[in-house]
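Recall from the previous chapter that SMILES is a line notation for molecules. Here it describes LWBT4IAB.
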Amino acid sequence: MQHANGIAYTTAGPQDAPAIVLSNSLGTTLDMWSPQLEALTQRFRVVRYDARGHGASTAALDTVTLDTLGRDVLAVLDALNIERAHFCGISMGGLTGQWLGVHAGERIGKLIVANTAARIGSFDGWAQRAALVRAEGMAEVAAGAAGRWFTADFVERHPRSVAQMTDELRATSASGYAACCDALATADLREAIATIAVPTLVIAGEHDPVTTVDDARYIAERVRDSRTVALSASHLSNIEAAEAFNAAVLAFLAE
Ligand SMILES: O=C(O)CC1=CCC(=O)O1
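With both inputs in hand, we obtain:
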């Protein structure tokens, strides 16, 4: 694991291949991309990183905004001397991707934003969640995570994958998680995304209760060079519908 400005990252795949950066969701780590690694490293240099406050990232947590999360990606690209990379982010990572499309489009080849929205949740909802984990730690948020992240059917059929993800969430630093809740509380790109000029794929989960198919449509209707695909999955569609997710990403990158 290497660090750039306190952001932990790792690379895999051929060094001279085009790079793709993978950006995790709230309460997960770069390990969430394991189901994508084999497929993507056939053709890409895959750069995974732990979002600020998560996993092995040690970056400061005083005032974290969406701007901070976006600039963290640029710091990783700079550390690797990568001028331009594809970017695939899920949920909070997808919001980070939209920020990059708006503010640093010249650094992004193609953009994939999955299970995300231009504005996720509400200020009050995120403020309450941040206060909860700051006061009481991760237990309550982790207890409800399976139902936010996966369909009941997936939870029943894949208990080990689900437990791995919820254990990881339970182990997430409460202050890191809360700092990212703060960022989500104020992140609102509903108007700004109309300026995104990067070719964009918007992936939705048909059963996602957090960021809906309508949220995906909202993005696609405003980003001029965009297409959408809806997968039979809940929120963490890269895990629940890994094969279809990989196929959609690879087809888009091959266009
Ligand atoms: O609430 C959750 O755990 C789902 C989620 C919202 C933003 C994000 O990245 O994950």
